[in-house]
Design a protein that fits this description.
With about 260 residues, the chain is α+β, with helices and mostly antiparallel strands. The chain folds into 3 domains: about 70 residues; about 60 residues; about 80 residues, no CATH class. The protein is built from 4 helices and 5 strands; from the N terminus they run H-H-H-E-E-E-E-E-H. Helix 1 packs across helix 2, helix 1 packs across helix 3 and helix 2 runs antiparallel to helix 3. The longest helix is centred in the N-terminal third of the chain and has 125 residues. The chain is rod-shaped and about 160 Å long.
Length: about 260
């Protein structure tokens, strides 16, 4: 082997050794790069997950904020309505207080008026034709007791007084028969009374033998004898609705007798 050939082999071997050494170093560098890249990718994924979590939390807080804003807006509208209602209620309270003050004034005026009305009604009953006298006196006494009661309102007292006047007023337009007792010649007898409005009040004993009429001018009972016996009996049956109404011939006071 020549010297030249030997040098060539040595040179080739050196080249081979030189080429083999850099390939190993490059391989290690690539692995490091890939490992670092994977680490960065993992960190990026973790960061993205954190970012997504923060975004989701932010969106949730934003939704809550919007909901709270809507609730606040609704409460503001509700408060506005309440303020208007309170203003109206204050006005109504002022009107009510004014009405109460007015009622107190009216009460102070109407109570004496009702007292006079009851006194007048009592006098009227005593001076009127004496039909259902006990019932009417009891009604007046009840009114006097009602006016003295503190647990009865003024309105209720006034209603009862006007009701009593209405009852008395109705007596003048109706016909009525009722049973009662009457002192006749010193003896108490059971009789049937017949009231014709306020213009006539007559009686008849149960056996029909005694008949009489009230004389308003002299305020006494007068004996009618047998002259009006059948008419009185007929009037009693009409008042009891046992027969149809018809014309009656009855003794009545002349209009001037009640003046």
């Amino acid at each position: 082997m020549s010297l030249t050939h030997r040098r060539f082999r040595l040179l080739a071997g050196g080249v081979i050794l030189a080429l083999a050494y850099p390939v190993t170093g490059i391989s290690q560098s690539v692995d490091d790069v890939l490992a670092k890249q994977q680490s960065r990718t993992k960190l990026s994924q973790q960061s993205q997950q954190k970012i997504d979590a923060v975004v989701d939390e932010t969106r949730g807080l934003e939704d809550q904020y919007k909901a709270v804003l809507k609730e606040i807006e609704g409460l503001q509208v509700y408060n506005t309505l309440l303020e208007r209602q309170i203003i109206r209620q204050d006005m109504q309270m002022e009107q009510l207080m004014a009405s109460i003050d007015g009622v107190e004034v009216i009460n102070r005026q109407i109570v004496p008026l009702m007292t006079k009305m009851v006194d007048s009604l009592e006098q009227f009953v005593e001076l009127d034709v004496p039909f259902l006298l006990e019932e009417r006196r009891n009604r007046v006494a009840g009114l006097e007791e009602t006016l003295e009661r503190q647990d009865v309102t003024v309105a209720e007292k006034f209603r009862k007084v006007t009701e009593a006047y209405q009852i008395e007023n109705e007596f003048g337009r109706t016909i009525e028969s009722y049973k009662g007792e009457l002192d006749i010649d010193g003896a108490v007898r059971q009789v049937d009374f017949l009231r014709i409005g306020r213009i006539g009040l007559v009686y008849q004993s149960e056996d029909g033998k005694l008949s009489g009429s009230w004389d308003q001018r002299n305020r006494t009972w007068i004996d009618l004898g047998s002259g009006y016996r059948s008419e009185i009996r007929k009037g009693i049956r009409i008042a009891r609705k046992e027969i149809a109404p018809e014309l009656l011939m009855m003794p009545v006071d002349a209009p001037e007798a009640n003046q």
